[in-house]
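We include this case.
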Amino acid sequence: QLLSPGNQPLQFVVALRAVAATIIVWHHFAIYPPLAEWAAPLWGGALDWLAQHARTTQVFFVVGGYVTARSMSGSSWNLRSFRSFVVQRYFRLGVPYLGAIAMILPIYLMARDWLPEQVVGQPPSLPQLLAHLFFLQGILGYEQLSAGLWFVCINFQLGLVYAAILVLRDTIGQGRVDFVGLLGWPLLAFSLFYFNLNDAWDSWWLYFFPYFFMGIVIHRSVRGEAHKLEFWLCLLLFVGAMTCEWRWRLLSALLVGLLLFVVERRGLGARWPQMRMVSWLGKISFSLFLVHFPVLVLVGTLWTLFDWVSPTAGAAGLLVAYGLSLLVAELFHR
């Protein structure tokens, strides 16, 4: 659970996760047939916009960098604590991730004769399953078994990289050398102006490092661990990278980072916004991220089976899939 120093939930971080998870769910609902295709005569404009622009995983990476730095930077790190972190991180991310895979596989068996290959993919192979077990499917070139699983793999990589930098800080640097800044800034620049420009790197942490490091910089700036201009230098590099080659994902990360920075600097993050629905969505956001695609495939299969293919039925199917996703996410979270 995300807690402030006074043991109060980090409400603004929770709210960002709630909004980002909801947008990602509807992005996937808009791009995967058949429900979106059937609903297009009624909701075509909204679905097209969601398909093209509603990509908000970078919000999770910015927030993840902030929360990770907040929870880890104050501890002392060595090789032993790094090994413990790797194991704990695997189980924290891996257990729900493997649960989502266990959920989608029997649904694929039912859906394979009814939905297109774009949705159900090829029948999974043993090497593919083993690659998923170790978060290596993207690196090894295997097809993802469900939408969003790649995010868990990248999140795992980024956590390990940050923990390794903290080990260097506390072992080689003896806490006197700022290895986070010493290594983080060159990595940020290389990523913004090289790795993030090449989609061939999108199975590796380097592609997503700018968003994650922005979260780290926000924490360093808010807690007074960095020079007061460090956050603005980070924003300037983002602007320079967008000037070099426009990327919507950089702008969305920049805007979210700026908003998070302002809210946290003003001390509002622990108590704003106080909305029960938003807090609940933020609490189940990771579960919702994992389970919504299996639910979408299941509903799409049932609608195809019963030949509910009218525009009204397609729109109703999307709403049913969203409501059912929330219910399953709550159960999955528990």
Observations:
- The mean pLDDT is 93.
- DSSP finds 15 helices and no strands in the chain.
- The radius of gyration is 21 Å.
- The CA atoms of residues 96 and 287 lie 8 Å apart.
